[in-house]
Amino acid sequence: MSLCKEVIGFISAIIYFIQRYRISFDKAFQLAKKSYPKLLMHFDVRKLYELSCSVVRDYVKLVEVLKYLGLTATRKNIVKLWFLINMESNLVTDELRSCLRREVKHLKHYPIDTSLKALTQSMDLRSLSIRYSIPKPILELLSRYGSLKFVEEFAKSVSERVLWVRINTLKIDVDKAKKLLEDLGFEFIEDKDFHYLIKIIKFKRAITLTRLFRGGYVVPQDKASIIVVEALNPQPNDKIIDFAAAPGMKTSLIMQLSENKAKVVAIDISKKRLTKMKVLLRRLGVNTDRVDLVLSDSRIIKLRGDFDKGLIDAPCSGSGTLIKDVAMRII
Question: What percent of the chain is modeled with pLDDT above 70?
């Protein structure tokens, strides 16, 4: 099988796994890797990840264009249309580009640009859905709480690919971490509100592939999630209860801001998530002797003793992942 057919099949498989099992993009990507082991020998995994992610992100738009043109929106047609539109993208290697031209030849005769313009020129929910490739039901839900302008501003914001990274001061000095990130080729903007937070704007490789991440010196965490913990203002010796605490990002930040001197009771209903949380806290240098993990339903648990502060972020302020997990464009 040619390289381009393997890549098209790989990305099509990701779409299938998301639709079939209602799973995240990352889980679908791992399943596709098992289905196409030979592809990984000839194609950079990180680039394949970014490429696949970009196709899935444009899923809504691609499906609507195919329908508008009277074509069947099969998974392979969806992938091929993306390649036709983005043939000159730096995600497409020269080797891949040369063989893809043959694979997308049957689509070249269709007025793709004209169709896209016709589908997105109106100012209504359907046009916004296609323009920003966000499922229409999500925008319809938002329209109950604001104007069409509000909905468009939301669509724009969630379409921006923003990566916030927290520097873990429990394990490393902020300036030293920034210098190491610069040496690794990361370009970033220092956040004006929190000195330990940066916004990555350019990178040569994923932050999760670096020694800094694996060692727990830096960790991706949305600013919205950080604001919640900052509002709590954890101090040394505070007794804090964290409801629905797993996977532990906010608990770890509580300990970071209190210099590992707060006392936290972290409750979650999932034993599996609590087990992973324990591993995460240790990797991030949290003093786990000062964190009690409790397996319970936060809605009905009966507690003894007094607490100075409590954190319950039930909708999860980090749930921008609802959109940032590109699988949500399909599910």
Answer: 96
